[in-house]
Amino acid sequence: MRAIVLGLCTAVVLTVRVADAQMPLPAAKPPDGATLFKQQCAVCHTLSLSEPARQGPPLLKVVGRPAGKIEGFRYSQGLANADFAWDEARLDAWLTNPQAVIPGVIMAYRQGKPETRAAIIAYLKEQN
């Protein structure tokens, strides 16, 4: 009788473990743009025109703004001479590799993950 009970207990445990193994994992949270901005961008950039500029220019209302044109910020020559406005595609290319967009710029940050770039750009669009 004891062998039967142990056998049934083992079968129940195995059944529960198999059922647990088949449960889907919760979906991963998409990256949060605000958090990513604070972690990866806020060291050099603010989102306020009233705060003193940091190493990089303020990024408030950057989407649609002409590149290299904030009054009072000293841009590199390449950015000062830029002849485009920031849009999602240009920001994505910039965050991927700033040197490829404007050779000679000083920004060293690069983001290889498309989902991270998309979250940061979406957050910047919200700041417009």
TrEMBL record:
The lineage of its organism: Bacteria, Pseudomonadati, Pseudomonadota, Alphaproteobacteria, Hyphomicrobiales. It comes from the Bacteria. Keywords: Electron transport, Heme, Iron, Metal-binding, Signal, Transport. InterPro entries: Cyt_c-like_dom, Cyt_c-like_dom_sf, Cyt_c_1A/1B. Residues 1-21 form the signal peptide. This is C-type cytochrome. Residues 28-128 form the Cytochrome c domain. GO terms for molecular function: electron transfer activity; heme binding; metal ion binding. The keyword Membrane does not apply.
